[in-house]
């Protein structure tokens, strides 16, 4: 019975730990698919509201379109890709490299989501793709940019970057 209670307590604590960082609502996506990245923000910094969220777009995520957010200013940085990508018969050599939502105010005790979508191009199943995120608040900053070394447990990182695991692509497209 004690083991059951200990397991139940540990399981109850897991969601709280998971909410302690910026995460992706859907942490898996098929290779060569359009992916809707929903970044979940569960807290501010030092008890103060989040005022800016910057997301670095990983190489290989192309044709990115962010979702505007009422009350926030949206800015997009563009640049060249490391290589050309096929996007439904069109060659893309540049695109969105960073998306920033700023000027809003998400109180520390509230939750919200920031959304963008794009095409996952050139990733093999099993690959893990990281989205470095910087969360700025009235007081303080969280840099969710840490990427685990080979063999390192991502849970050991203080401020891990949100991770997306690439799965087998859908056949017939």
How would you describe this protein?
With 173 residues, the protein is mainly β. It has a single domain, classed as Immunoglobulin-like (Sandwich). The protein is built from 1 helix and 12 strands; from the N terminus they run αββββββββββββ. The chain has one helix spanning 2-18; strands spanning 23-24, 28-30, 34-41, 50-56, 61-66, 73-87, 90-106, 112-120, 128-130, 133-137, 141-144, 163-167. The strands form 3 sheets. The chain has a 5-stranded antiparallel beta sheet with strand order 6-7-4-10-11, with no helix packed on it. Strands 1-3-8-5 form a 4-stranded antiparallel beta sheet, with no helix packed on it. The chain has a 3-stranded mixed beta sheet with strand order 2-12-9, with no helix packed on it. A hairpin with a 3-residue loop joins strand 10 (133-137) and strand 11 (141-144). Mean pLDDT is 89; it is low at 1-19. InterPro entries: YcnI-copper_dom, YcnI-like_sf. Keywords: Signal. Residues 1-20 form the signal peptide.
Q: Layout of helices and strands, plus pairs?
A:
Elements: H1 2-18, E1 23-24, E2 28-30, E3 34-41, E4 50-56, E5 61-66, E6 73-87, E7 90-106, E8 112-120, E9 128-130, E10 133-137, E11 141-144, E12 163-167
Parallel strand pairs: 2-12
Antiparallel strand pairs: 1-3, 3-8, 4-7, 4-10, 5-8, 6-7, 9-12, 10-11
InterPro entries: YcnI-copper_dom, YcnI-like_sf
Domain YncI copper-binding: 21-166
Protein name: DUF1775 domain-containing protein
How would a textbook summarize the main sheet? 5 strands, antiparallel
How many strand units? 12
CATH topology: the name is Immunoglobulin-like
Helix-and-strand structural type: mainly beta
What is the CATH top level name? Answer: Mainly Beta
Order of helices and strands: HEEEEEEEEEEEE
Strands in their spatial order, largest beta sheet: 6-7-4-10-11
Mean pLDDT: 89
């Amino acid at each position: 019975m004690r083991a059951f209670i200990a397991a139940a307590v540990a399981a109850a604590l897991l969601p709280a730990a998971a909410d302690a960082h910026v995460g992706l609502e859907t942490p898996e996506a098929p290779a060569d698919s359009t992916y809707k990245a929903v970044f979940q923000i569960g807290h501010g910094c030092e008890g103060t509201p989040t005022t800016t969220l910057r997301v670095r777009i990983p190489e290989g995520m192309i044709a990115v379109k962010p979702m505007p957010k009422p009350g926030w200013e949206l800015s997009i940085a563009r640049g060249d890709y490391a290589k050309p990508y096929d996007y439904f018969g069109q060659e893309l050599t540049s695109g969105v490299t960073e998306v920033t939502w700023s000027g809003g105010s998400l109180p520390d005790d509230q939750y919200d989501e920031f959304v963008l979508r794009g095409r996952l191009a050139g990733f093999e199943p099993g690959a893990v793709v990281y989205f470095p995120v910087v969360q700025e608040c009235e007081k303080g900053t969280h840099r969710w940019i840490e990427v685990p070394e080979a063999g390192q447990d991502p849970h050991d990182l203080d401020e891990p970057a949100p991770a997306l695991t690439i799965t087998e692509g859908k056949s017939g497209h």
